[in-house]
C-alpha cells in the first residue's frame, strides 16, 4: 500500500526531487479562500440531508466514516479522523434516510475540510452547513483545499467570490 505525499505545485525543486524518486503527480488540489457569508447565499437543495455533530459517539462512528472514505476515496483514513477529532476540529456527519452519505470538518482557525460525500451533488448543502458552524464561531473568512477534479465545488466557490491561494500536488 503506497502512502500519498503532498507537494506545493509551485515549488519545482521539491516536486522534481520527488519525481526523481518515483513519486509522480496523481492529482492536484486547489487552495481557496473567501468569505464565510457566501455559504448563507448558496441556498443549496438539501433534499432530505440531515446534519448531526460528531459528539460523544465519535469513536464508534469512525469505522462508518472510514467505510465512506473507502467508497469515495478508494482508501480509508481512520487514523486521520482520530487526529482531526483530537485536534479539536468540529465534525458533522450527513445522513439521508439514516445512512451516512457524507462528513465534513471545520477547524478552530476557520478552515473547512476535509469533506467527503457519497454524492457530489450533496457538497453545496454540506458546505452551507459547515459555513453555519463557522459563523457560530465568529469566523468571517475561510479556506478550503479542493481536489481539482471536483469541478462542482471549484466552480461554485469561484463564481461566489472565492480566490485561489495555492495549487498542490498529491504524488
Principal-axis shape = globular
Largest sheet: 4 strands, antiparallel
Secondary structural class: alpha+beta
What is Rg?
Answer: 16 Å
- Per DSSP, what share of the residues sits in E-state strands of 2 or more residues? 25-35%
Descriptive report:
A hairpin with a 2-residue loop joins strand 4 (90-96) and strand 5. With 171 residues, the protein is an alpha+beta fold. The mean pLDDT is 89. It has a four-stranded antiparallel sheet with strand order 1-8-2-7. It is globular, with a radius of gyration of 16 Å. The protein starts with 5 loop residues before the first strand and ends with a strand. The chain contains six helices and eight strands; from the N terminus they run E-H-E-H-E-H-H-E-E-E-H-E-H-E.
Give a nutshell description of this structure.
By secondary structure, the chain is of the alpha+beta class. 36% of the residues lie in helices and 30% in strands.
Any chance you could write out the topology, listing elements then pairs?
Elements lengths: L5 E3 L3 H9 L6 E9 L1 H5 L8 E4 L4 H16 L4 H9 L3 E7 L2 E8 L5 E6 L5 H14 L4 E7 L3 H9 L3 E8 L1
Antiparallel strand pairs: 1-8, 2-7, 2-8, 3-4, 4-5, 5-6
List keywords for this structure.
171 residues, alpha+beta, four-stranded antiparallel β-sheet, 8 strands, globular
